[in-house]
């Protein structure tokens, strides 16, 4: 008979935040098309993907960008960071379109990014899955075989999310992520964004409160 498991405390979590935001879908789809290279040179056979340029400054996306910025700020606050005198700011926001057999390798975002995210625009059946990887390299290195890879546990090295249109996903920039192989004949399209933070000067006339702050332009 095995001994009882001692009390357990979990520290140093790797949170992922998911929220359904269909209210922005129509506008973001329409605006992003103008920045997306519909006619582009032949795609790479190994990575059949198309990408747009940055478009977070488009005034038609003000509500969408403000929602992302304020949510990112609230996430950092909820994690225990002192962001009262900080504001979130976009560094990048672009559209990706992955065609059959495409994928995105595991990576993280540097250059000062704090929060990264994805907003799904088109998600055909059998499309790529969004995958998050355990950031603890030492744990992965000495990891033992899992009892069941389909069950999320402390032993898991990765977790996948099924994309759906209008789904908005946030996480810290240090959490490695990737997209699995795209199996659909129709492409998956999504917005990818990075946000950093910067100090804002205090305003003496205002009551000091923890109010979400986000800069769009």
Give the arrangement of secondary structure elements.
Elements lengths: L15 E5 L4 H11 L13 E3 L10 H17 L7 E13 L5 E4 L7 E8 L7 E4 L3 H5 L16 E4 L5 E6 L4 E3 L8 E12 L14 E2 L2
Parallel strand pairs: 3-11
Antiparallel strand pairs: 1-8, 2-3, 3-10, 4-9, 5-8, 5-10, 6-7, 6-9
Give short descriptive properties of this protein:
217 residues, alpha+beta, Jelly Rolls, seven-stranded mixed sheet, four-stranded antiparallel sheet, 11 strands, 15% helix
Structure description:
With 217 residues, this protein is an alpha+beta fold. 15% of the residues lie in helices and 29% in strands. It has 3 helices and 11 strands; from the N terminus they run E-H-E-H-E-E-E-E-H-E-E-E-E-E. Strands 1, 2, 3, 5, 8, 10 and 11 form a 7-stranded mixed sheet that branches. The protein has a 4-stranded antiparallel sheet with strand order 4-9-6-7, with no helix packed on it. It is globular, with a radius of gyration of 19 Å. The termini are far apart. 24% of the residues are buried.
CATH architecture assignment name: Sandwich
Tell me the CATH superfamily: q2cbj1_9rhob like domain
Please mark out the parts with pLDDT under 50 across 5 or more consecutive residues, or reply none: none
Proportion in β-strands: 25-35%
What general form does the structure show? Answer: globular
CATH class: Mainly Beta
Which class of secondary structure composition applies to the elements? alpha+beta
Gyration radius over CA: 19 Å
Helix/strand order, N-terminal first: EHEHEEEEHEEEEE
Question: Kindly state the mean pLDDT as a whole number?
Answer: 91
Roughly how much helix do the residues carry, as a percent range?
10-25%
SS element count, helices: 3
End-to-end distance, in Å?
64 Å
The main sheet comes to: 7 strands, mixed
Compute the number of structural domains: 1
Q: Which fold name fills CATH's third level, the topology?
A: Jelly Rolls
Tally of DSSP β-strands:
11
